[in-house]
Amino acid sequence: MRQLAVVMIILNINYGRLDCSYTMDIDEPHTYTPPKHYYQTSSFDENDISDDASKSPLNRGPYFDISASRNVTALVGNTAYLNCRVRNLGNRTVSWIRHRDLHLLTVGKATYTSDQRYQSVHNPQLDDWSLKVLYPQQRDSGVYECQISTTPPVGYSMTLSVVEPVTSIVGGPDLYIDTGSTVNLTCIVQYLPEPPPLIQWTHNGVEINYDSPRGGVSVITEKGDITTSYLLIQRARSSDSGKYTCLPSMANPTTVHVHVLNEEE
């Protein structure tokens, strides 16, 4: 056999060519499947986190700490923070993307948009990469994604809701009261950074005087994350009908129309 192989090579050389036949293994396209403990906006299920993965965090590669809230509410004009906590980041980078227009906002600590209200804030002690939004407006509400530069990238989406202070009167815009009964108007103020220092009530555009000879008129205000002011008018009479307005400082006023009815009405 060895002699035959030599003869075939010599024959091929004599004909001016050397034939070599071999096969090459071509790798299949590389597909990355992140572990179950990676958060993917399209298919992540917190119930899929296995106990084994949680016991060996150092072997996990980059992953999101999903303990942070995915829903953030901010007041118009008050700085908002979307907090993204990434463990075992290594040499990967963290980016923030706005879903509304798929706009890249930040990469690492750099801002990649002309809107300089968006900034990346890194806290290395907590492994936090927060998106800071200065002077947020209601149009900034929507879904934002914190993304790790793995192959393919994995992301953690969060929803920002930018709200304005809201003032409302329970039961409005019209209330019907029987003569002689008690008028109880409840004004609720929400979404203020702190309770309003003052809430005024007016009747037909005139500030209510609680020390007037009419008597039987009082206000009780409870302050907190939601501030509530109660206007109480004892022994309602027809002259108490009209437009009542709740005017909290630092928030918009709201109005209700009170109709005091006699038995015939």
What can you tell me about this protein's structure?
With 265 residues, this protein is mostly beta strands. The chain is rod-shaped, with a radius of gyration of 34 Å. It is 7% helix and 40% strand. The protein has a six-stranded mixed beta sheet, with no helix packed on it. It has helices at residues 2-14, 51-55; strands spanning 63-64, 71-75, 80-82, 86-87, 94-98, 103-107, 110-111, 118-123, 128-133, 142-148, 154-163, 166-169, 174-178, 183-190, 199-203, 206-207, 217-222, 227-233, 242-248, 254-261. The chain has two domains: 1-11 and 62-164, Immunoglobulins (Immunoglobulin-like, Sandwich); 166-261, Immunoglobulin-like (Sandwich), CATH 2.60.40.10. This is Ig-like domain-containing protein. It comes from Anopheles farauti. One of its GO terms (cellular component) is neuron projection membrane. Residues 62-161, 165-257 form the Ig-like domain.
Helix content: under 10%
N-to-C span: 121 Å
Low-pLDDT stretches are: 1-56
Characterize the largest beta sheet: strand count, sense, and whether it forms a barrel: 6 strands, mixed
The spatial strand order of the largest sheet comes to 2-11-10-5-6-7
Number of strands: 20
- The CATH class of the largest domain is Mainly Beta
Radius of gyration from the CA trace?
34 Å
Shape: rod-shaped
The figure for the number of domains is 2
The CATH homologous superfamily of the largest domain is termed: Immunoglobulins
The CATH topology of the largest domain? Immunoglobulin-like
Structural class: mainly beta
DSSP strand content: 35-45%
* Average of pLDDT: 78
SSE string, helices as H and strands as E: HHEEEEEEEEEEEEEEEEEEEE
Count of individual helical segments: 2
Architecture of the largest domain, CATH level 2?
Sandwich
